[in-house]
Structures are given as C-alpha cells and as structure tokens.
Write a structure and sequence with these properties.
The chain is built from 7 helices and 11 strands. The chain has 255 residues and is an alpha+beta fold.
C-alpha cells in the first residue's frame, strides 16, 4: 500500500504535498501525479537530515529550492536584548491586537508582506482562506497576533504573529511594510508579543527562516536564538501549469 499523500493548494497557487509516514518512491510518484493532474508547481518540505527523503524526491523529479534554519528563542534572553535598546517604542505608532483591525485590511497587509518572504511570493488569500488560517486556527491568540498602525491615519504598517500551541509556541511572521522599515517597528511589535508570551508563562519560542535571508539570520543571532534543526524545500514543476484554476483542497490516498 502507498503511504497517504496529503495535498492542498496554497494561496500562492502552488500545491503543497506531505507524506507523514515518510517519502517512498511510490508516494513521491503519487505526488508527481497530483502535480501533473492539477498542473501546478508542487512543494514538499522535509527535514534537512532526511537523506532518504531527499534522494526519493530528487529521483521523482523534484528539485531542491531552498533551506530553512529552525531555531529556538529563550523569551527572557530575547526580551533582555529588546529592553536594553534605546528608543524601544518608535514615535508615530501604536500597537493593537489583530482583533481590533478590519479583517480585509489585515488580509491585504499579510498578502503584501508575504511577497518579501522567501517561498511565498504570489501569495493572495481569499477572505475565507485568511479567516480559516488566522482567527479560526486553534493556535490563534489575540495577545500575540499584533498589528502596528501609524498615527494619526491608522494605516497598517506591520504585524507579528506568534502561534500559541499546546505543544510548542511558534513565531510565524514578523513583517513591516517597506516604507516603514529601519524605524524599529518590527522590534516594537516583537517586544510586545514576547511580553505577552512571557505573561502566559511560556519560556521559549521556535521559529524558522530562509538561510539566504541575511536580515532574519542577523536578528535571530542578535536575540540569542539557538539552532535546533533545519528543513529543505523541494519543488516539482509539471510540464505545464496554471495560475488561475480554483484553489481546491486535495486529499488523496494511494493503494
């Protein structure tokens, strides 16, 4: 029996495939078949140390695209760094919970910021997708999903989201609009979110970043992040692909 291959079309219109039992030649072939059936660029993310999965995916026609470092932040250490810097709170700015901003504006901000995140170019969530992956996510916490707004226009200029899971707490995004960067907006957002994490009794936050992203790597080092692993992303490109087909959900079992 072929291991179950789960797949769904992401808001960037690429097909994301997973095989929880581990990639085998049969399951990789099934992923390729799905890519061709749906005519979409197809992504698989695996542990960087899983040489067997790498070989299987490459043999099936996947190509290594990028590598992510996985790190853990000690909350107290990171907050000590942020609190030790001068002018912690930038002027002309206030920070609120994501629940206190218009959902459509938050979705547009998220889509915009993702264009600068390696691996998510072209991301454009529908209203239903955004709500499902944000407010309806069981790990959503209004205390740690924060938005920075400018004064007095209340323009959304950046966001931070920390997912408060029962087994792990994860920093999912820290992003600022291009014309607001280098004003310490991101640091203010992160400071507020980490304070909420500490108040909730948590001591560590995991996150990941593309190893080619110098700014993310520098920030992680500055906050005392410790490496705990790495992941690699493989991509399969079918002979022809489409960009405008419906973003249908896909789940399939091989037999």
């Amino acid at each position: 029996m072929i291991s179950e291959v789960r797949a769904h079309v992401r808001p960037d219109r690429r097909l994301y495939v997973q095989c929880r039992e581990g990639w085998t030649p049969a399951s990789a072939a099934r992923a390729v078949a799905l890519a061709r059936e749906h005519r979409r660029s197809t992504i698989a993310s695996v542990d960087a140390e899983d040489a067997s999965a790498h070989a299987v995916l490459v043999e099936a026609g996947f190509v290594l695209m990028r590598r992510e470092a996985v790190v853990v932040l000690d909350v107290s250490t990171a907050l000590a760094v942020l609190e030790g810097e001068s002018e912690r709170e930038p002027s002309g700015l206030f920070i609120v919970s994501a629940l206190n901003v218009r959902e459509d504006l938050l979705r547009e901000l998220d889509d915009e910021l993702r264009q600068d995140v390696p691996g998510t170019g072209g991301w454009a969530s529908s209203p239903a997708e955004f709500r499902a992956h944000t407010f309806e996510d069981p790990e959503f916490d209004s205390r740690t999903y924060l938005v920075a707004l400018s004064k007095p226009a209340s323009e959304l200029v950046g966001l931070v989201r920390i997912w408060m899971g029962s087994e792990r707490i994860r920093l999912g995004m820290l992003g600022v609009r291009r014309d607001w960067r280098r004003r310490r907006v991101g640091m203010a957002l992160l400071h507020h979110a980490l304070e909420a994490v500490r108040a909730a009794g948590a001591t560590a936050v995991t996150t990941e970043f593309d190893v080619a992203n110098d700014a993310s790597r520098a920030l992680a080092e500055r906050l005392g992040a410790q490496p705990i692993g790495a992941r690699v992303e493989f991509q399969f490109e079918p002979e022809s692909s489409v960009e405008s087909a419906p973003r249908e959900a896909v789940s399939t079992h091989g037999s």
